[in-house]
Amino acid sequence: MKSLTIRNLSKTYFDPYAGAHVTAVHDVSLEVKEGEFVSIVGPSGCGKTTILNMIAGFIPITGGEILIDGRPVKGPGPDRGVVFQSFALFPWRTVLENVAFGPKMRGIGRTERERIAHEYLALAKLSDAAGRYPNELSGGMQQRVGVVRALANEPDVLLMDEPFASVDAQTRMTLQEELTRIWQDRRPTVIFITHDVGEAVFLANRVVVLSEGRMLEEIRVDLPRPRSWDALHEDEQFKAVTGRVLQLVRSA
Amino acid sequence: MSPLLQAWSAYVRLTVRWPSIASIVPFVPVAAVWWMVTELELFPRVFLPGPVEVVRSFGSLVYKGILPEYLQDSMVRLAVGAFWGIALGIPLGILVGTSQRAHTALWPLLLFFQAIGDIAWLPILVIWFGYGLITMTFVIVYTVIFPVVLNTVLGVRSIPITMHRAALSLGASRARILWEVVLPGALPNIVTGLRNGLGYGWRALIAAEIIVGTSGIGFLMFDARRAGSVVEILLGMIILGILWYIVDSWILAPIERATGQRWGLVTR
After folding, report:
1. Least CB-CB distance to A91: which of B167, B173, B263?
2. Which candidate, B64, B91, B119, B254, has a CA 20 to 30 Å from the CA of B267?
3. Chain B contact for A149, CB < 8 A?
4. Do B27 and B107 fall within a single domain?
5. What pLDDT score does B268 carry?
6. How many CB atoms lie under 10 A from the CB of residue A64?
């Protein structure tokens, strides 16, 4: 896992309906160290998904630069794993084949890539689902597959785009706890996009508040790990940080 | 328990044991009505023969070896035409579906030539190739290819962009994405295109055999008209229906069950 540097990043595009140029992201700079977990939080339309799509290389940048370990990003690549809000699992592949997809693309033989996939499925407690197709799983299980599919490819940076937004509230809390556990175990560098302030604080070492394409503030989160909702629910420090972030988001 | 209920429960148990019986049963009342109409002699027997005569004619045509030969001719023509229609149609559909340039260049042509119906080609084909397999293969390929191409394009274009993005960020090259994402993602639509294409192709084949044929089920029916044998015409029609039913339930439906339905891309 390597570091990520974003310098003066901006994105403008031409809106054919408005007949004008629109700035979605304006002069954003961010340094994410190896093994760090950073949440980017902000209301809908603040540009957070645009930033993630630019880091992933899905859309071109129009200003500034994005560097992974000093190398500029050019298009999508396996050095940046992505977890999608819509899961984006391949419906025609079993759970095992989905997780083994990245290693397969790297040219790893069947036995070895299936060993890797089984290892990661065990990490997410999904071993029993290995032979099933994604549509046979619940939303929560599908997204667990989405997370380990990205991790199994051992990316330098893990990019997560509101990954738990489309699962129910109870499942979401479980997934968040599991993610912190997996993060502690594997220590990937993570950029986590969300509009949920509690989620952003619960997961991250650092929360970046975004508004109208600009960075408002960065807040350190020094809560002890392992984190669980049972412990943090009534925690004064957690409440204080969450309140501060919420204030920023709402004032934006 | 009333006898009616007993009969019904026996039927239900029977269809659970042999599900194929359930697909034959709907034809029983149709055949019964047909039989009654002919027994009442509402129409002259020569114009509307009954099921018994048709079955008898089936037996005699099989015995003479005419029906097996004609059936084989029709099936081989359909298979050859379908093969080329699929072999050309799917790659063309994927090209037009994935490349904007190919789409701009080929889409108007596709729509133009689609409008010239299959049998509208027959007059000129007969002049070019005469009465034979080439003419008939051309017509079937022509008929099969458009539904396959258009549905493949639709299938390719309806794959969510996140599928492409997921594959790219897992390290797939553009070429591997064709095989790993585009083809399976478009498969349910491709099967729909096949089903439509083969259905149209089957009809076009019969039309071609009637017009330019020297053998085949279509020719059998046209030849029977010349001889005034309504029995054989009816037999031909029934065979058309049965054959299509077999192609659909033995080939197309299993493909659908194994792909789109299994993956949850189409609802049962």
Report:
1. B263
2. B91
3. yes
4. no
5. 59
6. 17
Count structural domains, chain B.
Answer: 2
CB contact under 8 A, B171 and A56: no
Q: Which residue has the tokens 């902000």?
A: A42
pLDDT cut 70: percent of chain B above it: 99
Q: Which residues contact B94 (CB under 8 A, 6 or more apart)?
A: B152, B156, B178, B182, B183, B186
> Alpha-carbon distance B55 to B70, whole Å?
17
Q: What is the CATH number of the domain that holds B254?
A: 1.10.3720.10
Domain coverage including residue B122? 51-261
Nearest-CA distance B264 → chain A (Å): 6
Whether B221 and B208 have beta carbons less than 8 Å apart is answered as no
SS3 B52: helix
Say if A97 falls within a structural domain: no
Residue found by looking up tokens 């797939």 in the block? B172
pLDDT greater than 60 at residue B195: yes
Return the number of other C-beta atoms located less than 10 Å from residue A196's C-beta.
Answer: 16
Q: Which residues are bridge partners to A159 per DSSP? A: A82, A191
Q: Are residues B31 and B79 in the same domain?
A: no
Q: B166 and A88: CB-CB below 8 Å?
A: yes
Compute the average pLDDT of residues B165-188.
94
- Do residues B75 and B122 share a domain? yes
The CATH number of whichever domain residue A239 belongs to comes to: 3.40.50.300
Give dist(CA B128, CA B134) in Å, integer: 10
Q: Output DSSP code: residue A46.
A: S
Rounded Cα distance between B6 and B219, Å, is 47
Decide if A87 is inside a domain.
no
User: Same domain for B9 and B77?
Assistant: no
Q: CA B59, CA B78: separation in Å to the nearest integer? A: 24
With a cut of 80, say whether residue A121 has pLDDT above it: yes
Q: Do B263 and A92 touch (CB under 8 A)?
A: yes
Q: What is the domain range of residue A223?
A: 4-79+155-251
Whole-model pTM: value is 0.85
Q: Read off the pLDDT of each residue in A34-49 and give the average, rounded to a whole number.
A: 91
Q: What is the pLDDT of residues A204-220, one digit of tens each?
A: 999 999 998 899 999 99
Q: Do B264 and A136 touch (CB under 8 A)?
A: yes
Domain shared by B29 and B133, yes or no: no
pLDDT tens-place string over residues A148-172: 999 999 999 999 999 999 889 999 9
The shortest CB-CB distance from A105 to any of B160, B171, B187 is to: B171
